Please model this.
Amino acid sequence: MKRLVLLGGGHAHLFVLEAFAREQPEAVVSLITPDALTPYSGMMPGVIAGHYDYRQACIDLAPLAARAGCALRLDAAVSLDAAQRQIRLASGEVIDYDLLSIDTGSTPRIPDLPGADTCGHPVKPIGQLLDSWHTARAARSAAVVGAGAAGVEIIMALHHRQPRMRCTLVDRAPCLLDGLPVRLQRRVIAELVRQRIEVVTDARVSGIDGDALRLEDGRSIPSQFTVWATGAAPPAWLRGSGLALDERGFIATGPTLQSLSHPEVFAAGDVATMIDAPRPKSGVFAVRAGPPLAANLLRAARRDTLQPWTPQTRALLLLACGRRHAIASRGGWSLQGDWVWRWKDRIDRAFMRRFDL
Model:
C-alpha cells in the first residue's frame, strides 16, 4: 500500500483526519507533528486576554489520529528531499513516503536587528509566547511590532490583561491593517483610542533591549515585553527541499493543492501559496482548504482524477478587542459590539467541539 504522510498538525489537516475517519484511504497513513496539542488560532488572543485557558483553545490530535487509523509521531521535520521522497526528522529518523501532505504552518518573521531574538518574543509558537508572558506579568510597558490583524488582537489582549500597562502598537506601514477595508481600519483605530493604546505607524525599528524599542528616527518606545507580529515566513527546511517555491519561499501549489513541481506532494495553509489564486496567510483560508485537500488525498490514494478548487476571494474577519467585544468585517461592511464577541465565541467553541474529541 502507498505510504501517505501528513506533515504538520495545522487546521487543514484537522479536516483530513476527520475525512479519513469516515473513509479510510487506500494507504498507510502517519501524522508527524511536534506536539499532540495543536492551538486553534482563533482563540489564542482570548487566551492571552484571560477569557480561556490554553487547553480550552487546543485540539488534541491523538484521538483524531486514532479515529482516522493514522499513526501519530511526535517529531518535526528538519529537511525534505523531494527527489528521494524522504523527510528527515529532528530525532534523526528518515521517513519515506509515496504521498505527502504538508500543513506545518508558517514561522514568525523576526527582524534582523540588535536584540531582536533575545529581547523580543515571536507570536509563534503561541505556547512559548504565553510562557514568556506569564514570566513578564510585572512589565510596566509592552509593544507589539506589526499592525496586521494578529498584532491588533494581541496588543488589545495584553492591555485587557494588564490595564495599567502602557501598550504601543508599531508598524512600518503608513496605516494599521494595511490593505484591509478602510471602514475596518477606522473602527479599529477608534477602539485603540478608547483603550488608550498608542499607535505608531511609518516607524522602522532599529534595535531593542529589555526596556525599549529604538526607532530609526531616534525615538524610543518603552517596552519591557515586545511581541513580533511582523508577518509569516516559510520553514527554513523548504529552501533545500527541491520543491517549487513562490518568491517568498512558500510551497507553490496549483488548484488541486499539489506542488507545481512534485505532484505527489500536497500543501495547504500558511506553508503554501496557490499561484493562480493567492490568498492572505490566515487561519480562515487554511480551514477552507481542509475539505478539498482531504478529498484530493483520498482520490490520489486510489489513483482517481483530482478536482480543482478555487478559494473564496473574501472571508469574514472577526477581530477580538481584548475585552469581550469584537469587530466583524467582510468586504466593505463592518460591525462591532459585545454581541459580535459572543457570536465569535460561539463559532470558536463550535469548531473546538467538532475536532477536540
